[in-house]
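hiii, so i know i said id send this last week but things got crazy w the move. better late than never?? heres the sequnce for the chain we talked about at the cafe, plus the structure i predicted for it. fair warning i was half asleep when i ran it
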Amino acid sequence: MVLARGDWFFLLLTLLVSVFMVRPYLYAVQQDNYRVNEIFHSKRVRNAYIADVVCVLVFGAFWGAFYFVQSRIFWGFLTGLFFFIAEFALYFVEEMPARKKPFRYTRRAVRAIVAVALSCTAAVSVALACVNGYVEDSYLRYLVFFGIPVTFPLLFSATLAVVNVFERINNRRYERRTRRILAARPDLIKIAVTGSFGKTSVKNMLAGMLSEKYRVLVTPESYNTPMGISKTVKELDATHEIFIAEMGARRKGDIGRLMRIVRPEYAVLTGINDQHLQTFGSREAIVREKLRVLDVYTDEGIAVVSDTLAELPRISADPRTDILLAGSRPTSPVRYSDVAVCEDGSVFTLDLQGIRIECMTRLLGKHNIANITLAAAMAYSLGVSPERIADAVARLEPTPHRLQLIEGNGIKIIDDSFNSNPQGAACALEVLSLFNGRKVVVTPGMVELGEVENEENRRLGNALADVADVVMLVGKKRVQSIRRGLQEKGFDGTVLIYDTLSDAEEAFKGVLHIGDVLLLLNDLPDCYDE
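okay and structure toks below
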């Protein structure tokens, strides 16, 4: 079995095309920690595969027609060459998402690209050698090249499954190193922040308050996975006094794994809802996993918990750690009251275990006051004075894409595109109701809510009917539940439906007017497009 003359040229083209073909597949799995089955949920992958099949059919037809031509070897070569050019063009012109969850060329992504490209080239080499060795008609070897896009999902899945084994081994090495670094700093105060919603905002608020007294290292953006925490710990130095780690969870065991890495003495639990119900399987599983953050690694540790969870048995009587409830309940040790909200921010009274202070914040929404209260409870427990907490509250900036107010060309934009849960949507609409002017909402609905997803999106439609004047829906599947909710409430405003967010944005110039308020409610990552 040998390769024929000219096969090396096509193998080089196979290698180059594979590098570009892998991107949409890799983007899909990158959204959920490189789980292979995510490629089957991605519209981008499905569209790419359909385009590949069409390309194969078109050039396959040319190949079949040239079979009966006397100089078919020459025409077969040209057909194969232009087939690769067409495939290259299909993937080269494709724009990868640059917003909510952009494609990232991390070291792991680059390793995956190289591995898939090499395995694809190796598979084609073996197939060509077999054809050349066992088939007399060399013209048939061009069918091997046409088979590349058709079999690419299988090649990608098999290669990534193997690569993931080695990546997990490598990740465990990083996790062990992170544990050693943190264990070598017994003086370092370690705080875990988790919850179904609000954890990034609370983390940033807490970092701002603690920075009034301490030098703080905090996981950036939404770095809430083992690798995200490991990358952050690399920046730890002897001057840092506090480390704040955001902890995310989509499946059973995620919080436990992060807790074993960080071993925090303090914890903040922001709240629990049905977010990621689809991947957890049940509400009970979500509650059990989130409550694992209370397993702090010292008897003197404090866990600040939203008083919305006060009735949970584990919260009301925890044997290993003190629970400090914070929220709006009159019986909570740390609570807020006397709230006045407007489109420019809020003023409220914060009660820190009997010490009352007046606070002002530019952050939008009453839910942000609840977040501030959770952060303030932990900061006060760690010795930050009430006065410094109030100063920090006044300087807080909104977390990007979480009720971030943007002014532009006479239109106010409320960017809440990172939100994807019922409580967050309700808070965003409550904020929108505070503004004057015509209210326009763009949303694709909510995802990963399992069996309650349709019902929650219907309720979202009910809530939109009470606030919005114009509703711009994106997608096909989930928007039907939202439309039903709008109809139930007799919504008499305008409903517009678009296939993609890009289509909706193109329509802005015809829909929006000076004085409007635009709410961007949950820009879904690409893997959830229908």
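btw The two ends are 45 Å apart (CA to CA). thought thatd interest u
miss u guys!!
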